[in-house]
Design a protein that fits this description.
The structure holds two protein chains of two kinds. Chain A is an alpha+beta fold. Chain A contains six helices and 26 strands. In chain B, α2 packs across α6, α3 packs parallel to α8 and α8 packs antiparallel against α20. Classes of the chains: A alpha+beta, B alpha+beta. The structure holds adenosine-5'-triphosphate and magnesium ion.
Chain lengths: ~375, ~675
């Protein structure tokens, strides 16, 4: 294999694929990226056995087709330290891989490319198509609510439901639930329900954010594939049952407040300053025209801040983990939120813009 | 005679012969004890507590070929225990002898004693029990026209009388220890005694899956075990599907000693050894050899503080095992202990190796992924330590199966941490920079000579550039030595102090701080509780009856901790509220409640305050940053700042140190500078 690749493009490819290279693994081949040169294109492949990526580099000149399996961190280091070079030549034979710049030559020992696990490719048509920036935004509005590690429900991923021209993402960690709805570019080929691991979602987010284009998605038996202009992302699906989320979304509310998003977020952060690690809780007292936030840490002090709010309903006091509030407020771009509650021990709902809904459970302040 | 006839192994038998024949060894010059008194003494050995009675009565029912056994208990067994079976029953003649010591239909001579196939063989149990209670038996032999009943009180036996009875036997024991006040005092609370009975039921029901069992307490059903086709099903009925489904079957082996059973994967290990159920020829036993084999088989797979969950059934020629060494038969002696140990260890290892203990979803067909498992090794084997690879402590810290090696790894990486630190922060004298640009560089960071520019770039985990550490506390004035701070191996914080350096175990310190905070919060005033996060989707957890009871009894403790559980079907609980601290740290509510339940059920002797401290320590440990978690500089500084505030931060709640100090004097000594 021999290719001449633009250094900047190579670095971008290695940064993205590097997300899936395991830092700690007993299997050295999994610390590698695989390079495949063919048909005038260089493809960089990486997989951690759960998710995989194939990234295509157009800014290359393929001199000789072939493959190489190279330790990812080594190669990335060399490329990063060669930023002053316009391009690098990568040449691999059975023994080693050579990276050459204008005044540099690195010889890296790799592995037999045949030992690398297969990374599925996106063949044929997808199930649906969606604007990449729209999807990235929906992901940012839900991904934060996934469980970090959870054994009971399949909620370490984001539920992805495609139906007609609609896409819906739902994520929950058992304490709160985030739901984002959006539209597809055109009607989906078929309806799909799948739980996509958070890792793939954040990878999609990375690829999609700077990619003002349409991407395609396809769900097969136990895996999901995403195709963008330059990359194919693939991941096994989270197996298991997603909780019946529609049952936990309150249908009605007796107290409805409207609050400015930015002001409210600011106030919540202020109130959080006087909470303690061991007792995260901010008390929200909703009155007819304002909400007063109080917090207290016995050994440190107390905070009381307020924020204008219009309340429809009787005054109500309710406690929340401030982090659960700011997590959602941070990703909302609408100026105003609707905060809907029915009791201090019942779930509350934040609605904002079109298609975003956030259910969160209160805390009992001891 | 297959066993050497040393006194201990046939002790009860001697007594038996002596009493029955009325002739005593000539060397003994003692007088004959009145029979009830002999039995009262024997009762001390056989009848320790209500659960012992349940054991003896159920064993008798099993010996009588019962298909269904009902156990009804009142007031933890202190008031009444009734065991009803549908077995062969007893004739009036049997009944006459039932309460007579050493009357047994099960063995008749010495030879039998060494080839025991029934649970009972001494003819001692009923007599011993009747000596310390009001006992009553009602029985009808299979095929017999009518039934008979007999009662005994403090050892006085009334003659059998005809009565109406269904086929089988019902034995009731009331007012245990009514005539031995000293022993009555030793009985614990109703709940404790009942917990022992529940546990006893498991020990009896596991080796007899085909027999149906039902246990009621004060009329309320506590367990209902339908006849099961397999041990696994019985485990599911006793301890829940969750555990049963995770079990790995031991492939039966039959070279002389046959070993069968079920093992839980290392991840399901518990904080107590009581989840090790070992049976020899259907008899629950405790044996050092067997538990040693278990520990050995799981070595390197679980933390040393935890015990594997296992159900092990050893079948061995009755002639090769002596069950008559302990009054309650809980201990046995193997004729060839090494052989039993070897056979068990081999079977356990084989089972664990066969199982793929780290199920990772795999992508397509990968030659690489098949590697590890074809060799029959768990895929989660710790990578061999190597100097340039990722530090082994990180690999270990992320793998629950290997927590036991954590301590070693900690020690190893502590040494490594110091070495790294010293490498990264050479003594100032060595930092003289003769490069021509030294002066014009001026700005402090340029002085970071020792390291290459690449290492000075912030690491991916937000680690501090090593270079900064070498700089003479730039910009903060030389006095502010605490400015030099770094995290090594994502596990330790190394910081300069005025008179040396400290190495802080991030987990241990954070754990200690949280523990102090939690304690302080609860001590604030009488009714304070921890902030409690309500669950949007309650988590369900299956626990053993004894654990459910324990949770019930300590509901006040749970409430203070911000935890609320509700019954949700048999043995199943739903966690409705969970301590906000743990919820935020992503600790699974179900797992934590299961662990607390285990701790509470295991020991209820501790007073509530001590128990609270224990659970707080558990919480702090779960919520604290783990070894292997990268910390930002701010987080590190915050931890260290709080370290100074916190009293007692020198040791984590488990007593491990949080901080090691290396003084300049010590450094100088080590470098031969003094
Ligand atoms: N449920 C029962 N059904 C039928 N027979 C019974 C039952 N319970 C007791 N017996 C008879 O009563 C006898 C005495 O029982 P006991 O438990 O005292 O002695 P054992 O079982 O022979 O020996 P061990 O003292 O070791 O238990 C038994 O040998 C048996 O014949
Ligand atoms: Mg018996």
């Amino acid at each position: 294999m021999k290719v001449i690749a633009q250094t900047a493009a190579l670095q971008e490819a290695l940064t993205l694929t590097g997300q899936l290279v395991a830092a700690r693994t007993p299997k050295p081949v999994l610390q590698c990226v695989k390079l495949v040169a063919a048909d005038g294109v260089l493809t960089v492949l990486a997989t951690d056995l759960e998710a995989g990526v194939r990234y295509q580099l157009g800014a290359v000149q393929v001199e000789q087709d072939g493959e190489a399996l190279i330790p990812a961190a080594r190669l990335a280091g060399i490329v990063r330290e060669s930023a002053d070079e316009e391009s690098l030549t990568i040449e691999a034979d059975a023994d080693a891989c050579h990276v050459r710049g204008a005044g540099s030559h690195f010889k890296i020992f790799g592995y037999d490319p045949g030992e690398y696990p297969a990374v599925a490719d996106f063949d044929g048509d997808g199930d649906c198509r969606i604007a990449s920036d729209a999807l990235a935004e929906m992901i940012s509005k839900t991904l934060f609510a996934t469980a970090k590690a959870h054994s009971h429900y399949a909620i370490s991923g984001v539920l992805c439901e495609v139906s007609g021209k609609k896409l819906q993402l739902v994520a929950t960690d058992g304490h709160r639930l985030a739901q984002a709805k959006g539209s597809l570019a055109d009607a989906a080929g078929r309806d799909v329900t799948a739980i996509v691991p958070g890792k793939l979602m954040s990878l999609i987010q990375r690829v999609a954010a700077d990619d003002g284009e349409t991407l395609e998605m396809k769900v097969e038996e136990n895996q999901v594939l995403v195709r963008t202009a330059r990359a194919v992302l693939v991941s096994t699906l989270v197996q298991g049952n997603f909780p019946k989320y529609s049952e936990v979304i309150p249908k009605e509310a007796t107290h409805k407040a409207k609050i400015n998003t930015a002001q409210f977020e600011h106030r919540v952060r202020q109130a959080a300053l006087l909470t303690n690690e061991e007792s995260r809780g901010v008390r929200l007292a909703f009155g007819s025209d304002e909400v007063v936030l109080t917090s207290r840490t016995p050994e440190a002090g107390e905070a009381e801040v307020s924020c204008p709010a219009t309340l429809d309903g009787e005054p109500l006091e309710i406690g929340f983990n401030p982090a659960f509030l700011t997590d959602a407020l941070r990703v909302i771009d609408a100026d105003e939120i609707a905060f809907e509650m029915s009791a201090s021990n019942k779930p509350a709902v934040i609605k904002a813009g079109t298609g975003f809904l956030y259910v969160l459970m209160p805390v009992d302040l001891g | 005679m297959p066993f050497p006839s040393d006194g201990a192994s046939i002790r009860p038998l001697n007594r038996f012969r002596a009493a029955e024949d009325g002739c005593y060894p000539e060397t003994m010059s003692i007088h004959v004890l009145p029979t009830p008194l002999v039995n009262k003494i024997a009762a001390g050995e056989v009848v320790e507590r209500p659960a012992s009675i349940v054991k003896e009565l159920v064993e008798n029912a099993l010996d009588a070929e019962a298909g269904r056994i009902e156990i009804a208990v009142e007031d933890g067994g202190r008031k009444a225990i009734t065991v009803t079976d549908d077995g062969i029953g007893m004739s009036p003649d049997d009944l006459k002898l039932a309460f007579v010591a050493h009357a047994t239909g099960k063995i008749s001579d010495d030879e039998d004693l060494f080839a025991i196939e029934t649970m009972g063989f001494r003819g001692e149990a009923l007599a011993s029990i009747a000596a310390v209670s009001h006992a009553h038996i009602r029985s009808r032999r299979r095929g017999a026209e009518s039934g008979y009943e007999v009662s005994a009180s403090g050892g006085e036996i009334a003659p059998p009388r005809p009565c109406a009875a269904s086929a089988g036997t019902a034995v009731s024991i009331r007012d245990l220890f009514y005539n031995t006040p000293a022993r009555r005092k030793f009985m614990r609370t109703t709940a404790t005694e009942f917990a022992h009975i529940s546990e006893q039921l498991a020990r009896l029901a596991l080796p007899h899956p085909r027999v149906a069992f039902r246990l009621t307490h004060n009329g309320r059903e506590s367990a209902n075990l339908p006849p099961a086709d397999s041990t696994a099903e019985r485990v599911a009925d006793l301890f829940g599907r969750e555990l049963a489904d995770a079990l790995l079957p031991i492939r039966p082996r039959g070279d002389g000693v046959s070993v069968a059973g079920l093992l839980a994967p290392p991840a399901a290990a518990r904080s107590s050894s009581k989840w090790q159920y070992c049976f020899v020829n259907g008899r629950y036993i405790r044996d050092r050899l067997l538990s040693h084999a278990l520990r050995e088989a799981y070595r390197g797979r679980i933390d040393v503080q935890r015990w594997p969950v296992a159900f092990i059934f050893v079948e061995i020629d009755p002639a090769d095992v002596d069950v008559n060494v302990h009054p309650t038969k809980i201990e046995v002696r193997f004729r060839n202990g090494n052989q039993v140990h070897g056979a068990l260890l081999a079977a356990l290892r084989e089972t664990l190796n066969r199982a793929n203990l780290s199920p990772t979803a795999r992508l397509g067909d990968s030659p690489a992924s098949s590697e590890g498992n074809d060799r029959g090794e768990p895929a989660s084997e710790t990578p061999p330590p190597s100097s340039h690879d990722a530090p082994s402590v990180e690999a270990v810290a992320h793998d629950d199966n290997h927590r036991n090696t954590l301590d070693d790894a900690r020690r190893h990486s502590l040494r490594q941490a110091l070495a790294d630190f010293l490498k990264a922060a050479p003594p100032r004298q060595q930092r003289l920079d003769f490069s021509p640009h030294a002066n014009q560089a001026g700005a402090p960071p340029a002085g970071t000579d020792a390291t290459s520019p690449s290492t000075a770039a912030p690491g991916p985990s937000g680690r501090l550039p090593l270079g900064d550490l070498g700089a003479p506390a730039a910009g903060h004035g030389a006095g502010d030595a605490a400015a030099a701070i770094m995290q090594v191996h994502n596990s330790y914080i190394v910081a300069a102090t005025d008179d040396g350096i400290i190495v802080v175990d991030q987990h241990a310190l954070h754990e200690r701080l949280l523990y102090n905070d939690l304690q302080r919060r609860l001590a604030e005033s009488d009714g304070t509780k921890l902030t409690s996060q309500r669950l949007l989707i309650p988590e369900t957890v299956t626990v053993a009856p004894a654990e459910a009871d324990a949770l019930n009894r300590r509901s006040e403790l749970l409430d203070r901790l911000g935890i609320e559980v509700q019954a949700f079907g048999p043995r199943c609980l739903a966690v409705q509220r969970f301590c906000a601290l743990l919820a935020e740290r992503g600790v699974g509510a179900a797992d934590f409640v299961r662990e607390i339940a285990g701790t509470l059920a295991e020991d209820d002797t501790t007073n509530p305050e001590q128990m609270l401290q224990r659970v707080l320590a558990m919480m702090a440990c779960k919520a604290a940053v783990k070894a292997g978690e990268p910390l930002s500089e701010d987080e590190m500084r915050d931890l260290l700042a709080r370290r100074r505030e916190a009293d007692k931060a020198a040791a984590c709640p488990h007593g491990r140190p949080t901080t090691l100090t290396l003084t300049l004097a010590e450094l100088a000594r080590q470098f031969g500078r003094s």
